[in-house]
Write a structure and sequence with these properties.
With 240 residues, the protein is α/β, with parallel strands linked by helices. It has 9 helices and 8 strands. It has an 8-stranded parallel β-sheet with strand order 7-6-5-4-3-2-1-8.
């Protein structure tokens, strides 16, 4: 079981004082997260104006790798980033500093095309499933077993409904005989219940300012490293 750090996501600048938005800030923040126990990193590179950008992957991944040698680094391919299928594909095709993996949301129309492009480029795929419908679409793909892992990522804010959706996704994967690793995470109010559930199921999880800024006790976290440390403590406590 590992804890992946998701350090910024699509959060706006005013979400948290320590939200890293430049390549330099992401590299420093990533190093602090690794020191706190994060085994992997998930980042959303930004352009000079602070907006998410697939074109910024080269400089950002390089900076993070230099700060965190040997740590796997992943990025998002969310359709909203470039907001255009052809621009998204062109940006991925132009990457020179390849991330170790990239997440692809199965709710997005061009998900199969993006997945195939990532395979051609030798980039691992995290298949993001937010709903049972996403899971059903995923298992219908002929090459669904050719992914690094599956993300069960639930953004429903009602905990009971969120748990139902997560269990429903897991059931679809089980019925289809999918045997790829599963990483489970929630968003905002479901972050810590899902860390606990991942821990119970012995699945990896992820935490960080992309998913939420509060600690399990309801206090605001100082920074990403504090959030990671809290999740790592849960995982290590259960392992003992």
């Amino acid at each position: 079981m590992i804890v992946q750090a998701c350090i910024n996501g699509a959060r706006p600048r005013d979400f948290h004082a320590k939200l890293p938005l430049t390549a330099e800030a992401m590299a420093g923040d990533a190093a602090a997260c690794v020191a706190a126990g994060a085994a992997e990193l998930h980042i959303h590179p930004r352009s000079i104006d602070g907006r998410e950008s697939l074109a910024a992957v080269n400089a950002t991944v390089l900076a993070v790798r230099q700060a965190c040698p040997g740590t796997l680094v992943g990025v998002s391919t969310g359709a909203w980033i470039e907001n255009d299928v052809e621009r998204t594909r062109a940006a991925i095709a132009g990457w020179r500093e390849l991330p170790d993996y990239a997440s692809v949301n199965l709710s997005e129309a061009d998900a199969p095309g993006v997945m195939e492009l990532l395979r051609q480029r030798g980039v691992g795929i995290e298949a993001g499933l937010a709903t049972v419908a996403d899971a059903e679409r995923f298992v219908s793909l002929a090459d669904h077993d050719r992914v690094l892992r599956i993300l069960i990522e639930i953004d429903i804010q009602d905990l009971s409904a969120a748990l139902d959706e997560a269990h429903g996704i897991a059931a679809v994967l089980e019925r289809a005989g999918v045997r790829r690793p599963i990483l489970l995470h929630g968003v905002d109010v479901t972050v810590w219940p899902f860390v606990e559930l991942a821990h119970q199921k012995r699945w990896p999880t992820r935490v960080g300012l992309e998913d939420g800024k509060m600690l399990a006790d309801g206090t605001m976290a100082k920074d990403n490293a504090a959030i990671v440390a809290a999740a790592v403590a849960i995982f290590r406590g259960a392992a003992g």
